[in-house]
Design brief:
The chain is mostly helical and 104 residues long. 86% of the residues lie in helices and 0% in strands.
Length: 104
């Protein structure tokens, strides 16, 4: 496999798995299941760096730390919502890029 194939495979895997991870993050926050939120945040974090989603990575680091320590700030909900919004937009953009690559 070439580098392009690896990038495409990794991107496709992220596109397949990220929506469920985002749902789990939102659910864990809503239900105040802090350890579940921590685990989901920790799990998605490396993918964000690989995909170049810097702001989303900054947010998930803050979310992860708060959930791990269970020291929850008043603005955690805003951070979770911003994170999900950024990731949703990023998923749409990545999906379009993948479609464009397949069309070539």
């Amino acid at each position: 496999m070439g580098d392009e194939d690896i990038v495409l495979e990794t991107t496709n895997t992220f596109l397949e798995n990220a929506p469920e991870a985002l749902d789990q993050i939102k659910k864990a926050y809503t239900n105040q299941e802090w350890q579940s939120l921590y685990k989901q945040a920790h799990k998605i974090k490396p993918n964000l760096q690989y995909m170049g989603m810097d702001r989303a990575r900054e947010l998930i680091l803050e979310i992860e730390e708060q959930a791990k320590s269970e020291n929850i700030s008043d603005d955690l909900g805003e951070k979770v919502n911003e994170f999900i919004s950024i990731c949703s937009k990023g998923l749409d953009e990545l999906s379009e890029k993948v479609k464009d690559l397949h069309a070539q």
